[in-house]
């Protein structure tokens, strides 16, 4: 998809010092000071970029599941290991990708998983085209909380929002607490797309965002007699299944 060529040069750095330190750009206290400021900044960046379609994607899930790392992997192609610093409030990054000749701009909102920021993030659900809901395959608690996250989505998001359940950190074989089948079963129950990802190795990260971009493009260009695009089926066909992780 020519990702480097279509990268936007917007950009606040999520982390300073190159070592997993959060707090760069708006990911420090400034994002917490005013949502309207952040919205204005996002809109300004939108207007100066060339794209055919634009959509908002939100990353949600418990603190520590890897939301920020997933976004950094997608945007910059790197993994920020080192000490874990929690996101404060909410932050965003843009990336333009190409789907069948159309440029789709993804405005990706990275939310804080910590409970104390929950009321801030609620306001952002309404505008989201897609929600990437993460749990950590090495943390059962983060998986058990997925039902609560889905209830929250039900309450605050648009009815036709695209939901993708992502079991992140699938590179960690030894400390795994959840089987791939656990995620598949839950996703099936709720009728949402599912795959395991790794921000560390990059497994399925690009696919998660590209599937969202493709869904938007299909929604906008689909003719009445054409079948609807099914994100869950699409990711099932395209995803990589880690051999090390199944049991
Ligand atoms: N092994 C492995 N570690 C990961 C992966 N993704 C994230 N991590 C680690 O998990 C920790 C938390 O990652 P973050 O991306 O900051 O978590 P978060 O979901 O943004 O957390 P909050 O901002 O508090 O909501 C960091 O120490 C990361 O290095 C992954 O795919 N594999
Ligand atoms: Mg974070």
Automatic annotation (TrEMBL):
Keywords: GTP-binding, Hydrolase, Lipoprotein, Magnesium, Metal-binding, Nucleotide-binding, Prenylation, Protein transport, Transport. It catalyses: GTP + H2O = GDP + phosphate + H(+). Residues 17-27 have a biased composition (Gly residues). SMART domains: ARF, RAB, RAN, RAS, RHO. It is an enzyme of class 3 (hydrolase). InterPro entries: P-loop_NTPase, Small_GTP-bd, Small_GTPase, Small_GTPase_Rab. It holds the Pfam family Ras. It comes from the Eukaryota. Its cofactor is Mg(2+). GO terms for biological process: protein transport. GO terms for molecular function: G protein activity; GTP binding; metal ion binding. Its EC number is 3.6.5.2. Residues 1-38 are annotated as: Disordered. Belongs to the small GTPase superfamily. Rab family. This is small monomeric GTPase.
């Amino acid at each position: 998809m020519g990702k480097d060529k279509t990268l936007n040069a917007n950009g606040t750095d999520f982390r300073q010092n190159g070592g997993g330190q959060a707090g760069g750009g708006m990911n420090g206290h400034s994002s917490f000071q005013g949502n309207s400021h952040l919205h204005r900044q996002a809109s300004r960046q939108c207007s100066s970029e060339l794209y055919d379609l634009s959509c908002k994607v939100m990353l949600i899930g418990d603190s520590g599941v890897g939301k920020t790392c997933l976004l950094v992997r997608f945007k910059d192609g790197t993994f920020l290991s080192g000490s874990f610093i929690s996101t404060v409030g909410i932050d965003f990054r843009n990336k333009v990708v190409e789907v069948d000749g159309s440029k789709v701009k993804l405005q990706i909102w990275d939310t804080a998983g910590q409970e104390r920021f929950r009321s801030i993030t609620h306001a952002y659900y309404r505008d989201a085209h897609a929600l990437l809901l993460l749990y950590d395959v090495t943390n059962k608690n983060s998986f058990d909380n997925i039902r609560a996250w889905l209830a929250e989505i039900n309450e605050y998001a648009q009815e036709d929002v695209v939901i993708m359940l992502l079991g992140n950190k699938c590179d960690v074989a030894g400390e795994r607490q959840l089987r791939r089948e656990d995620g598949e079963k839950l996703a099936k129950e709720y009728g949402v797309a599912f795959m395991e990802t790794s921000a560390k190795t990059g497994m399925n990260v690009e696919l998660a965002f590209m599937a969202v971009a493709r869904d938007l493009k299909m929604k906008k260009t689909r003719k009445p007699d054409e079948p609807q695009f099914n994100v869950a089926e699409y990711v099932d066909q395209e995803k990589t299944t880690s051999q090390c992780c199944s049991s």
